[in-house]
Amino acid sequence: MPSKKHLQEKQAVVDEIKDKLEKAQSAIVIDYMGITVAEADAMRKKLREANVEYRVYKNTLVNRAIKDTEFEGLENILSGPSAFAFSYEDAVAPARVLNGVMKDFKKMSFKGGVIEGKYFDEEGIKNIASLPSRDEMIAKFIGSIQSPISKAVRTFQAIADAKEA
Q: Could you list the residue range(s) of the whole structural domain that residue 162 is in?
């Protein structure tokens, strides 16, 4: 029978996970087996740069923490080795960063995740990971607006230069 201290330690971890989930815009679950320590360190560095928190927890403790939350959909994928990436600012950052790491290392795989309250399976997370970031979309939008305006300005300038000549 587990000691009272042991049960308190487990409950502290469950509370920690619950706290992270309450603040998180997304939680992505991956199977991280097969990566080396150096690869894990490089991945953690990239995730930190994107303000994504990466942790490994026991599936049983996560199952307790997600009960009756919007993250409850994760229960079906919590088997085997699982690592968790939490984002508190950019909901798709964990999927995007992890997708890049997976391409670089040719290891690991998505299990699924919850983004802004909606559960996505492995394929759904892969699709979301391929979307451009918010900043990239804004830059593309601004570029698409500027292009016709720049073209019109050059045309008007050419007409004005032709009249002067």
A: 132-165
